[in-house]
Write a structure and sequence with these properties.
By secondary structure, the protein is α/β, with parallel strands linked by helices. It has four domains: about 130 residues, no CATH class; about 60 residues, no CATH class; about 55 residues, no CATH class; about 240 residues, no CATH class. It contains 22 helices and ten strands. Strands 6-7-8-9-10 form a five-stranded mixed sheet, with helices on one face. Strands 4-2-5 form a three-stranded parallel sheet, with helices on one face. A two-stranded parallel ribbon has the order 1-3. The longest helix is centred in the middle third of the chain and has 37 residues.
Amino acid sequence: MPDRANVAYCYDGSFEGLLCCIFESFEKKERPVSIQPEGMGQLTLYPPRAVQTELSKARRVEAGLRRKASDESYRLVELGYYSCHEQKELLLLDFTRLAMRYGRRALSMLADDTVNELTRAVQKLTNEAHQFKQFVRFSIGDNGAMSAVIEPKNFILPLIAPHFCDRYPCESFLIFDETHGAALVSTQGRYAIVPVDGYEQPKAGEEERRFRALWKLFYDTIAIEGRYNPKCRMTHMQKRFWKHMTELNGRGDSYHKNAADEIGNLFIWRLICDRGTKNSRQPVALHGLTSSLTCIILYSSEMMGMCKRVKREETTQERFNRMTQTPVKKLVCTLAVPTIISMLVTSFYNMADTFFVGRIGTSATGAVGVVFSLMAVIQAIGFTFGHGSGNYVSRALGRQDMENASRMVSTGFFSALFFGAGVSVLGLIFLDPLVRILGATPTILPYARGYAAYILLGAPYMTATFVLNNQLRFQGSAMYAMVGVISGAVLNIALDPLFIFTFRLGVSGAAIATIISQFISFCILLYASSRRGNIRIRWRDFTPKWAFYREILRGGCLLSGGRDWRAWQRCA
């Protein structure tokens, strides 16, 4: 073993240059402390020595390895050069010395740290190359050329080049290695690997977009729902491969095959709309919108009809008897289950927007997160008026005071409507300062401004929707409240991809989808409040008196249903 020299070798980064470094080490009978390519900077305190690349020296090292060791040893050194091992140059130097000393036996010396480490590095390289032979997805641009982008850990282009050249002997294609800044260029079976600083795939043509949609549809269709196991899939195909795969692009681990059929159809519909021709996109999208609205209307009508059939004979007195005489456990279950579902579905609005907006970019996702606090304030206002008025209404119905119950229902509803209108007007006037206070950065500000503007437009009936939802539950009509909330949530999920991707409205499209779905939910709940057994909302019953607002505050704030005004003040 040669003595360790206080010097670092520097070469041009090529495989022939590395062989010249090995030649230099043998010739001078020294082992450098490091071997590094040019442009890496001085990583050690020892003076660097530039080793010039000479093909004659490189061929002598190759011939020596093949003669004294074996062709397999030389192949192992060549593959080791393509690996991503941090100290691969020194590792290959040490292995070459072993091979020169022990010959063919060096390959079987797995107990040696050098041989073992090099073998494992090469095994990782070959495994990754084998995986990319399966996971590379080509795209045909407007110019008709095939291209693909990969991000491997190891430099695998020399290993996968023969496979793809044999597979596409008559095609011209390009595979760009984004990690190492190189590209495999092939034309008529001949290929070359060239350094590339950067590459952007050409825009996909119309035919390519349609094929992508068909491939995704095929992928979803052949999947077996009962065998869906994302953790098992990640053991065979790591998530780093998903980014550039057509069937998984834009879905990530959140995609679930067990999603409802309605949502799956909406995804397919979105793909068809987005891949259709320019002239046909709008009719297809409008057809999808009409179909979605029709489904929501039919669903809501069916649910309302079911509720009507169940309670069509129930009068106010019968409802009073049911709410006061039904065993508590049974009554709690009857009212709690629809209420729980309603509360869970309420959170889906922002989740749906975040899911679809996340496909646009990080700044757009940040805008939704910033405006979420504004939506939380609007929701809090609605819940305050809803819980406060509903609490009072339930107590009034318990003592059969229908007059004050009707006044409170109308007062809570119209007060929330007016309060929401005030929030809308003030928010739109001071829109920019508002989104900045909420935490919008200069990058997020344009997205947050567009999203918040539409949300503020819908603030009046959004607050009123929460009031109606709570008032119906406090009156014993939790089923009606659940139907209204679910209808709006499902419609929001259906409209998000339509406005965001098909109409290309971006973040504003998500907000428009939210306020439309909230308005539909508002209309359904308003209709439900007029059904038999529920208190109708009338303008003439609107009573803006302090006594009613005091009850709303007492029931809608921290001490819900409390009777001690001073205690409420202390908590406030």
